[in-house]
Amino acid sequence: MALINCKECSAEVSSTAVSCRKCGAPVAGKKTEQVTNLDSLIVLAGCFLSLPTGIFLAYRFTEDRLALRAFFGLLGLALPPLAALFYTSRNKK
Fold this sequence. Notes:
The protein is mainly alpha-helical. 53% of the residues lie in helices and 6% in strands.
């Protein structure tokens, strides 16, 4: 652990720190992950789409089989939020 100078305010900062204590500027070589508004919107949309998708799949593709209806309903509930989380985590490069 060495002390380096902040690029913004020239204060001494630890080389293991993520940001400067004085001005909050990121330390060189350290990347901070931030959740953007678009990521939040995509996950929220996935959660809101899960209920209609679950209901649609439960009643559209099965007749009277309760087990299949439950399977497709749960699949419809889980798929949109999981797809949204996968999409947002994949774009973090």
